[in-house]
Specification:
single chain; 199 residues; alpha+beta; 6-stranded mixed beta sheet; 4-stranded antiparallel beta sheet; 5 helices; 26% strand; globular; disordered C terminus
Length: 199
């Protein structure tokens, strides 16, 4: 079974340190937009490019977020933030599917996982509507079985998918921050029927 990993609403989100990113990649330009970690979701290695811990800021951006906590896991453009607690249990399972970058946040050490495995969708069952929104998405099981965590070009590498083994580790360790669903097409961190009630 394949699962869709989505950041839950009821946790703080991080922002990059703009000065640090500009120092590493240079000021934003047409020439580097596809290389910058803060702008591009393209799966690419940052070894030899990012040689220092990334600075993440989980400060609330509005008053309603002040009571929210920092999650153990957070998905951002198809990449995964992990606290050291999350890293300890997930690293053995996903280390072969990408690379880990060091992170500092709130005077703590964390990690940013860059998934480098890419799988094509099954075009027999994957569909978009007239607004180019993905309404159904699926993979051929044979194509995914070698990877525990991966992305697809079909959604511009923006989402993160995993095997059941990853889901079980997250749940058994009590890691916070994610909504995990078998609805691979959804971008919402709750059941689609609940979204329909909101609209």
């Amino acid at each position: 079974m394949i699962y869709n990993l989505i950041s839950a609403y009821n946790y703080r989100e991080f922002t990059y340190n703009e000065a640090q990113i500009n120092n590493i990649f240079g000021a934003l330009s047409e020439g580097n937009i596809d290389k910058r970690i803060d702008m591009s979701s393209i799966p690419q290695s940052y070894k030899g490019i990012i040689n220092e811990p990334l600075i993440f800021d989980f400060s609330p951006t509005e008053k309603s977020q002040e009571k929210l906590s920092i999650p153990d896991l957070s998905v951002r453009e198809g990449r995964l933030f992990l606290t050291d607690k999350a890293y300890d249990v997930l690293e053995p399972l996903i280390k072969n599917d990408g690379e880990f970058l060091s992170v500092t946040y709130e005077n703590k050490i964390g990690y940013f996982f860059i998934p480098l495995r890419v799988v094509d969708v099954d075009l027999k069952i994957t569909m978009k509507n007239e607004w180019d929104e993905i309404t159904n998405l699926g993979f051929i099981e044979e194509d995914t079985k070698e990877y525990n965590i991966f992305r697809t070009e079909y959604d511009v590498y923006y989402r993160l998918y995993c095997q059941e083994a990853v889901k079980e580790v997250i749940e058994n360790a009590g890691l916070t921050g994610l909504y995990i669903t078998t609805d691979l097409a959804t971008i919402y961190p709750h059941d689609r029927s609940e979204v329909d009630k909101l609209n």
